[in-house]
Amino acid sequence: MCTGSSVSDASFGPNVKILNSNSQIVELQTIIRDKNTSRSDFKFYADRLIRLVIEESLNQLPYSDCSVETPTGAIYDGLKYRSGNCGVSIVRSGEAMEQGLRDCCRSIRIGKILVESDADTHVAKVVYARFPDDIARRQVLLMYPIMSTGNTVLQAVNVLKEHGVPEDCIILSNLFCTPIAAKTVVGAFPQMKILTSELHPVAPNHFGQKYFGTD
Amino acid sequence: MCTGSSVSDASFGPNVKILNSNSQIVELQTIIRDKNTSRSDFKFYADRLIRLVIEESLNQLPYSDCSVETPTGAIYDGLKYRSGNCGVSIVRSGEAMEQGLRDCCRSIRIGKILVESDADTHVAKVVYARFPDDIARRQVLLMYPIMSTGNTVLQAVNVLKEHGVPEDCIILSNLFCTPIAAKTVVGAFPQMKILTSELHPVAPNHFGQKYFGTD
Amino acid sequence: MCTGSSVSDASFGPNVKILNSNSQIVELQTIIRDKNTSRSDFKFYADRLIRLVIEESLNQLPYSDCSVETPTGAIYDGLKYRSGNCGVSIVRSGEAMEQGLRDCCRSIRIGKILVESDADTHVAKVVYARFPDDIARRQVLLMYPIMSTGNTVLQAVNVLKEHGVPEDCIILSNLFCTPIAAKTVVGAFPQMKILTSELHPVAPNHFGQKYFGTD
Amino acid sequence: MCTGSSVSDASFGPNVKILNSNSQIVELQTIIRDKNTSRSDFKFYADRLIRLVIEESLNQLPYSDCSVETPTGAIYDGLKYRSGNCGVSIVRSGEAMEQGLRDCCRSIRIGKILVESDADTHVAKVVYARFPDDIARRQVLLMYPIMSTGNTVLQAVNVLKEHGVPEDCIILSNLFCTPIAAKTVVGAFPQMKILTSELHPVAPNHFGQKYFGTD
């Protein structure tokens, strides 16, 4: 049976899915991890990996059967999105995924959350949030490329839940995830789906700085 | 074992590979087949399916192991392309796939073949060809989105072979393929790889006209 | 008085217009002419200059007055395109301008002409042409980036006129033009508009090869 | 004499420059102001106007003479950027201009400022700022598409000055500006350059909501 192009990691339960790895995805991960990659190449190849993760994330959304008529008058039995999706990026690195989402869903609404950690106490705090006002009735693609500890995502999901979004309507789109972050996030939100391209003990923490050039 | 995100169709041998189907790919195919899709939407969603086919085609190219150093000084064992690829589009519909190829391979060289069928005899004839001059030493991604009979592709591959490209260095990137076309092309060129998103008796023949708006 | 962002060159009459030069346009021209520019940079900066020329070409098309209502209920007196435009690229180098045209006019129809010169007689001959079937009723943006002699353009315009396009409905979009080519084309088609970014005795003849990487 | 494609508005002094208006720019402004424009069209045409404003903003940056060698061995006297620029967007609407900046300057560094107004006191306050660490030595393209009062921009410029950026190294890139905002900002920062596409008493305040779909 062919169930799609992502696989679940048994150790984290059915809701942590990993993009089906292949040579070119490993190549993209290699380029992104390489400290000698130029900023221009880094951005180009990160954008490719982002698009692949976004495409697979969209595949987790609900679809309905539909029939369409082709130019020759034949009927084709296909699928269509169920409407009511939106994207939410976690500032700053999550914003790198916004263009990839737009490349796939032309006019999808995109909200934003800014979480900052207190330099002394290390407590993460939401300082800014802007959503479509009917977000409680939408499927939410939460975008955050690098998860090291999971703390920022915990805060962001809490804000979504405070705005009425059910946990099982959230799909976290991620590029690189540590096992400890996966464990933390799944433990806190067992109904949320997590899609990543790699589970690896070391996350490339230079991602945001290198992508945007603010180091 | 997970060998990638495409599957082989046993009836046509190991070299005909089909993109691993999932809900969103069926959705894209539905939109492209629907006669009521606007040109603007048609182009947008065709571009998405093209990118997915191109990404999977690139996955058929040869890769080598490599080790890179990460910003923290760790060594990461990854993969890199073996150099020496190029794209060749079959005019006109194949040109729709050029941008998708550039979105994935920033400065890849792209050649072009124009094949026309004689209105009376239906014989396909090459009227124009332009290639990188070292094409005989490259892997060639041959781009042609719709295969109904396979006749145009036969002519195009013959031209590539006349220019010294070995058959097993050609990967045909295709969106929609009829079983009869697959059989014709595999019969003529058993060493060439064919990658498509769908094998279906009816190919959406309005593709080129709708994509470029020249009907 | 400065009524737009292009100026006419008096020596060639009112229909040869040059993009209003400024520092960044000169910079783009410098990068394109520099033999040490990498292919990746060449394509990136050529695309920028192409977009600027396309934007200014669109400005030559006819517009009509229109009034729209703003979200606050106020009336704003503006302009809108008169419908009925299309693009036609001259293969191969003209195709480099197709994406720029699409970046400005999302679903504009784009036709294509292939002109080849006989290697012995140097006579230019049309070997392929594909147009929207109602092209005679459209304004045509003819795309050809480099004009050295003007011979190819002469053939292409003749084909358009054979298809019923009035000469004064054609706007030639060009990046680099020699004075001799401007003189030839204006002499043959005094009603056609020509828009270029530079009149200079030396045209960068490596443009197509470097843009597409087929040398 | 017309020396470029922007003009100064005499009433605000030499540092307020307006994009040279033409039919297509008025068309873009019309589409953006029209309440009946779809979100998909709104974003497409806003992106076009943004690119034109960005292109003209880049033209305000300093350039140096340079000579390059062409493929035929000739020397071409041209121009090149003086290095050391960066972009800074004011969240949220300014972020709409980031892609346009990247479309013109492939790997330019982009910082970000978030200013929020107190709901009671209407005092604008900076809640987040992230810059390239050597920003004091760079020319800064400050991006903010709609200026109604100028208060947000005042705060943002103050933050840039606190980080050591000289006032005359800031170019404000803007789409729509009210005369009162122009007066306020010029009064506070007479050395800063302001580039806009239109001075008009009514700014399209729905811009950010419509562009991102968060209303």
From TrEMBL, chains A, B, C, D:
Alphabetized Gene3D superfamilies for the sequence: 3.40.50.2020
Classification via SUPFAM superfamilies: PRTase-like
Superkingdom field: Eukaryota
Swiss-Prot/TrEMBL keywords: Cytoplasm, GTP-binding, Nucleotide-binding, Nucleus
Chief place where the protein resides: cytoplasm
CDD domains referenced in this protein's UniProt entry, alphabetically: PRTases_typeI (cd06223)
Keyword check for DNA damage: no
GO cellular component terms, A-Z: cytoplasm; nucleus
Single GO molecular function: GTP binding
Compartment(s) of residence: Cytoplasm; Nucleus
Domain Phosphoribosyltransferase residue range list: 21-199
Family (UniProt): Belongs to the UPRTase family.
Name of the protein this chain belongs to: Uracil phosphoribosyltransferase homolog
Organism this protein belongs to: Hermetia illucens
